[in-house]
Amino acid sequence: MAISMPKSSSISPSNQFLQSFSRNTKKKNSVVCCNQSELSPTRLELSICVGTHLIPHPRKIEKGGEDAFFVSNYNGGVLAIADGVSGWARKNIDPALFPRDLMTNVSNLIEDEEVNYEPQILLKKAHAATSSVGSATVVVAMLEKNGILKIANVGDCGLQIIRQGKINFSTSPQEHYFDCPYQLSSHEAGQTYLDAMVSEVELLEGDTIVMGSDGLFDNVFDHEIVSMISRFNDVAEAAKALATLANNHSKDTNFDSPYTIEARNRGNDIPLWKKALGMKLIGMVIPNFVVEKIDLIVCLVYRI
Known about the structure:
Layout: E1 16-19, E2 28-37, E3 46-54, E4 67-72, E5 77-84, H1 97-109, H2 119-129, E6 135-143, E7 148-154, E8 158-163, E9 166-170, E10 175-177, E11 180-181, E12 184-185, E13 197-202, E14 208-212, H3 214-217, H4 222-230, H5 235-250, H6 258-265, H7 272-276, E15 279-282, E16 289-292, E17 297-303
Antiparallel strand pairs: 1-4, 2-3, 3-17, 4-5, 5-6, 6-7, 6-12, 7-13, 8-9, 8-14, 10-11, 14-17, 15-16
EC number: 3.1.3.16
Organism: Aquilegia coerulea (Rocky mountain columbine)
GO molecular function: metal ion binding; protein serine/threonine phosphatase activity
């Protein structure tokens, strides 16, 4: 079961942090600072701080949104985000259940011997253990103590690494066609861990990791993310600022977002009323269902 966190808190080395969003919460942000991880005898010890923020769609405030994420300091650290697919609501199924169940299973399985600190295998086992009906895009990142970050993503949740004021690495969204991302699902026709895009990146002291659901990257340009990160030392404030910027862009009918530009480049036009409501068309389990775009999660990891 997901555990709600207060606005600011920390975790001990043995604890894990699983976040969903409590009822009647309009905006949620928190910060978690993990103990230092020794990378090698010849390298400085590094500490990891994670700031998070979510702004649910106005019609989803009652249940706190349809996304979930998980943070743990197991080994070097584990981060995961699951973005629920709103189309399931058409079948009277709560889209928030599947991502929360999936993240709960990620939490329960990170120390499994078969996982062996491989995020793709963690997705395999967590997906198999998820009994809720629904689907979600997902990204999992696992940091080893030698400084290697292993990443597995399915769909359009994303991860970027910012180094010295530039984006050093970025995951690429997976989609069947425009607005139809890959997703893990309770439905047999969905994707599996074998469809995950797997990456490895060596992190350096001072790197910043930005993770988010598509609500962030569809509404905020890369240069805006880099610029916003440079303004803050506090991770929770940085996460809140990015989430607020994405939310504001999503409701600005005069703003050409990364999503609207891509849609236009692919020959699609987005009516102003949909842009004003922060929506996009998406073909998923239920083709051509309108999905709200304002839900977003931002996770930032500062390595100090």
